[in-house]
Design a protein that fits this description.
Layout (H helix, E strand, L loop, with lengths): L6 E2 L13 H11 L3 E4 L8 H10 L3 E12 L2 E8 L6 H25 L7 H5 L9 H10 L6 H6 L15 E2 H10 L3 E4 L13 H10 L3 E5 L9 H10 L2 E4 L19 H10 L5
Parallel strand pairs: 1-2, 2-3, 3-5, 6-7, 7-8
Antiparallel strand pairs: 3-4, 4-6
Helix pairs in contact: 1-2, 8-9
Bound molecules: adenosine monophosphate (AMP), fe (iii) ion (2 copies) and zinc ion.
Amino acid sequence: MTGSLGYDLHTHSIISDGTTRPAEIAAEAAELGLRGFALTDHDTIAGWDEAREAAALHSIDFLPGIEVTTKHEERSKHLLGYGVSPEADELFSELERVRVARFGRAQEMVARLSKRFAITWEDVAGDAELESVGRPHIADALVRAGYFVDRSAAFADALHPRSEFYVPTYAIETLYAIELIRRAGGVPVLAHPVAERQRTPTTAEAVREFAAAGLIGIELDHPENRTDWLPPLREVAAELGLLVTGSSDYHGAGKPNRLGQCTTPAETVERIRALAATPH
Ligand code: AMP
Ligand code: FE
Ligand code: FE
Ligand code: ZN
């Protein structure tokens, strides 16, 4: 099917914190008439092969990606990296460190939570295919045990950063992560820079710093971006010549975001591919 709806460049599967398989995302994207999609699981590329094969089967385009949680001046910034080389040892050893830290942090949170809620580590991370564990997996265990109606309710309460059960986790510095992705032959794009859940918007000043470090694009079209916070970022993106992307940040049933809710035009995807070590 040749879709006319463009590309959804930000999706998560069960390999990280989505609720559907990489192949199911491909099937759903084809069903919706999307031209293609990127799989951007947190900290891992383990879903790429399945997504790529399923995309070919459904005659849609696949762009391989990843999402990395970083920090800049103590604020959390999510960075998408498209088309990194799977052989980039420097990047993948750093991501290995992130994943190991995430498992330790989630175990500590579960230990704290289990004093109040009847959940176990097996309930949270029992899935053998899980590569990167996060609060969404703890949320799912709490939901299954009947304490909350959905992930969002668990995030608003027991998993909130101000909750007594919350434990922070190691995150790479944003500027270093941008450099790592570039050195891995990837195309760094700042994810949901003005998401509602952030206490303050990403500033134009920060975007200038990121661009100086090698940032190539910015995800201005995202369901969680606050429209009233967007104008200064549109301006700075135009001034710096950053690529502007649109994506849903689909997590299956884990978030209200719908696949294809926001999309990126094919010309932009071609420009990303032209710069990427792994364009398909
Ligand atoms: P963590 O990195 O483990 O602290 O968890 C953050 C992840 O949880 C993000 O990448 C989102 O995918 C997800 N998330 C954040 N807020 C919510 C929410 N309100 N409902 C569902 N998922 C969320
Ligand atoms: Fe996520
Ligand atoms: Fe994110
Ligand atoms: Zn995401």
